[in-house]
Design goal:
two-stranded parallel sheet; alpha/beta; NAD(P)-bd_dom_sf; oxidoreductase
Amino acid sequence: MLKQGYGKIINIASMWGLSGSSSVFPIPAYTAAKGAVVNLTREMGLQYAKENIQVNAICPGFYRTNLAGGAYDNKEFVDSITAFTPMGRIAEAHEIRGPAIYLASSASDFMTGQIVVVDGGCQAK
């Protein structure tokens, strides 16, 4: 990216990188790791701004994916996170596509070190 004089880096963090998760379930190592990704994004955004390399992150909320190890088969878990999410539902994996396309496109050329939260309203609470 430095050699070509431009680039886009999109990190994936989590809404739990911006706040603690204990109001739903305690996962301190996960929240610490995702908080590190958030701050790495900010730092790299500053570091590479003059090089025309934009570094931003997406912080998803609850998305139905295979990464959850069967958690979405647990009705109690699904009911809990659905109730926690202001939009009253869990996102489908394809719904992260729009924010990713935006950050990868020229529409976000004047944006760096930013965090795009896509969590159904959880962080607005």
